[in-house]
Amino acid sequence: MKPKNDTFLRALLKEPVPYTPIWIMRQAGRYLPEYNETRARAGSFLDLCKNPDFCTEVTLQPIARFGLDAAILFSDILTIPDAMGLGLYFAEGEGPKFERPLREEWEIRDLTAPDPETHLGYVLDAVRQIRKALANEVPLIGFSGSPFTLACYMVEGGGSDDFRTTKTMLYRRPDLFHRILQVNTRAVTDYLNAQIRAGAQAVQIFDTWGGMLSSPAYEEFSLAYLRQVVAGLIKEHEGVRVPSIVFTKGGGVWLEKIAAIGCDAVGLDWTCEIGEARKRVGHRVALQGNMDPMVLFAGPEVVREEAHRILKSYGQGSGHVFNLGHGISQFTPPESVAALVDAVHDLSRPFH
Prior knowledge:
Layout: H1 7-12, H2 33-42, H3 45-49, H4 52-66, E1 71-72, H5 79-83, E2 88-91, E3 95-98, H6 105-109, H7 116-119, H8 121-134, E4 140-145, H9 147-156, H10 164-172, H11 174-198, E5 202-207, H12 215-232, E6 236-237, E7 240-241, E8 244-248, H13 255-259, E9 265-267, H14 274-281, E10 286-288, H15 300-314, E11 320-321, H16 334-347
Parallel strand pairs: 1-4, 4-5, 5-8, 8-9, 9-10, 10-11
Antiparallel strand pairs: 2-3, 6-7
Helix pairs in contact: 2-4, 4-8, 9-10, 9-11, 10-11, 11-12, 14-15, 15-16
C-alpha cells in the first residue's frame, strides 16, 4: 500500500509531484532535544540502536516536529560488521571502534555474510514497528553502508583521517581487500532486501568514504560492488516499486558512472552544482540533495535563500528530492531545519 504522502517515492521515480519533497540525512539525531532525552533513557548509543521501541521513537521524532516527506530507519551503518563478530563499541568522543579489526589473512578468508533474520533481527523488528507507527502517513527509508565504506571501518578498526591501513591493504593485497568486499556485497544486498521485506519502501546506500579513492580505485573497489548490490535488490515488493538511492560523498566527478549502475537516484554532496548534475545525467536518474549542512547555522533567511537557489538550479519538473549534502550537524538549531522544510515545500511549487 502506498503512503498517503508518496511525494518522495514519486519524485525518485521522476513522476509528477506537486512540490519537491524533503528529508534530511541523519534527521533523527543529537540536534533534537527529544532525541537526547530518549538516548539518555536508552543508556548508550548501541543500546538505542538495538532496541526497536527506542528506534521507533526517535525515527518518528523529526517527522512529528518538521513534517518531512519521508522517515528513515534509525540505526547505524556498522550493524553488519558487528553481526560478523568484529565487536562494535562506541568510545566517548571518538566514535565507533571495533575490538577485532580485520588484519590477518585467515580472518579475512573466514569472513562470512550474516543472516539478517538471525543476526540483525532487532533492525528488522524496528522496521516493522516503525512502519506500523507511521500509520502509512509517509514512506520509510531503509539503508546500509556500502561494501567499500564498511570495509574501511572493518580494516581500520574505526574512523580515520586518511584510512592508511585500509589503503595499504587495498594496494598491497588487493586479493584480500576484494575478498572483504565480496562478503560485504552479499551482506549488504541481503540486509537491504530483508529491510524491504520487513517494510522499507525505499533504500539508500551510503558510500561515505568512496570519494577518498582515485578514479581507477573507485571504479574497482567501490563502484563495481555498488553495481552488484543494486542489481541484487528487490525492485518491487507487494506490487509497489521500491526505489534505490546511491550516495557517494565526494563522488560528483563520477556522477555519470554512478547514474549508470541501475539505481533510481544519485545523492549529491554540496560540491556539485545540481543544475549541472541534472544536465549530465539527463533522464537516467533522479537527484537528491544538496545543501551544505553549514548553511543551517546562518539563520532562517539565508536558509530560505539557499533553498530557493538550489530549487532554481534544478529547475522545472520532477526528479529532485531535496536533502543536505551530508548528515546534519549535532549543533544545528532545530528552528533552521523547520525553516528549511517550510521553504522547500513553499518555494518549490512553482517548479512543478
